[in-house]
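Quick one, tokens below. Sequence please?
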């Protein structure tokens, strides 16, 4: 490209021929010039320049090492796991999520509530910034966070703060600082199309039945290009019409049937089966423990060991599949006939009286009642 023709935005910075000239003659990259100008603006302006919202602490650490300016807000909620019913406010949903996370044993109720309150307070103060940038990935974990955040901004439109998004098919927590800075080239402004789609999708996810969420598969979701696959992957976590297992539970049993006995390696092999990795070990452990606690159990631990799997992993934990597990995996038995399901997917509470199954052959959800 001819330097005289450059007219480009990166990270809220307008790259003009003059700045490109500096980049060209001083051997600086456009991203380095961007960071320099952003830092200069931060020093000159009394208003904080940027709030960077992303999926977790790992991404934040890399951004800081990369010298990306601004403040950082890791969202950190496993929205694909546990209740996410439609609520009247972010505060109300945060209360529900705090209780769920504490009940899972992933933190004390007081501590989790404090983290959510601090997070929500920072979001509510976002209008003090010149700009908010959303940094996210392509997987289900991140796509749900994008929907929640954009839906909040849809209802709380900033008057002067600009919003943009960087969403890529790479895992932010695995990038080098240099690779993280290079993601500025994928930044795009949030438009009315983003707001409208996110509002529709977030409402659908929180609905008490999955029809509206499923309908997104035939909706134009191009504004959020990874949403379609995330919706489909979420639906695959409903019990299969064939055997009552979620896709994750099915894959776990399959790996163990093939001879893998170590829980940690089972988790690794499960992740290898995912096109877009989204589930952490704590959620996976809960699924394995459900299979262990089933009556009859689909899995068992080696003789003399604890009745439940624990984190961190210990070397003496070994898993084997039971005859009941083999029967369910093959479709001879349906797990829903031998267990009382009690799970949430978004706003849908799956119970024996409210069973929705995923039909992989027709790509649709069916109510068994």
């Amino acid at each position: 490209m001819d330097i005289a023709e450059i007219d480009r935005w990166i990270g809220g910075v307008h790259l003009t021929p003059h700045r490109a000239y500096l980049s060209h003659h001083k051997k600086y990259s456009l991203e380095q010039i961007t960071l320099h100008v952003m830092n200069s603006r931060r020093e000159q302006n009394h208003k904080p320049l940027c709030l960077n919202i992303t999926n977790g602490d790992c991404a934040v650490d890399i951004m800081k090492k990369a010298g990306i300016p601004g403040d950082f807000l890791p969202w950190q909620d496993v929205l694909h796991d546990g209740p996410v019913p439609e609520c009247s406010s972010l505060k109300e949903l945060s209360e529900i999520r705090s209780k769920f996370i504490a009940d899972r044993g992933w933190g004390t109720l007081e501590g989790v509530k404090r983290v959510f309150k601090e997070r929500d307070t920072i979001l509510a103060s976002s209008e003090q910034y010149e700009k908010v940038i959303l940094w996210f990935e392509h997987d289900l974990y991140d796509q749900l966070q994008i929907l929640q955040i954009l839906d909040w901004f849809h209802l709380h439109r900033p008057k002067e703060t600009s919003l943009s998004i960087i969403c890529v098919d790479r895992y932010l927590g695995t990038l080098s600082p240099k690779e993280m800075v290079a993601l500025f080239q994928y930044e795009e402004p949030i438009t009315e199309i983003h707001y409208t789609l996110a509002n529709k999708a977030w409402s659908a996810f929180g609905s008490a039945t999955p029809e509206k969420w499923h309908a997104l598969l035939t909706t134009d979701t191009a504004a959020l290009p990874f949403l379609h696959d995330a919706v489909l992957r979420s639906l695959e976590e409903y019990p299969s019409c064939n055997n009552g297992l979620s896709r994750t539970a099915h894959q776990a049993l399959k790996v163990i049937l093939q001879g893998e006995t170590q829980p940690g390696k089972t988790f690794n092999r499960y992740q290898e089966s995912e096109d877009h990795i989204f589930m952490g070990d704590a959620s996976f452990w809960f699924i394995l423990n459900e299979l262990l606690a089933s009556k009859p159990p689909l899995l068992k631990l080696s003789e003399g060991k604890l009745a439940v799997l624990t984190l961190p992993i210990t070397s003496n934990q070994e898993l084997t599949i039971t005859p009941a597990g083999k029967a369910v995996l093959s479709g001879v038995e349906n797990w829903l006939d031998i267990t009382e399901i009690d799970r949430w997917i978004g706003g849908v509470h799956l119970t024996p009286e409210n069973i929705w199954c995923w039909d992989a052959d027709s790509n649709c959800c069916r109510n068994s009642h």
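The longest helix spans residues 109-124. Confidence is low (pLDDT under 50) at residues 16-26.
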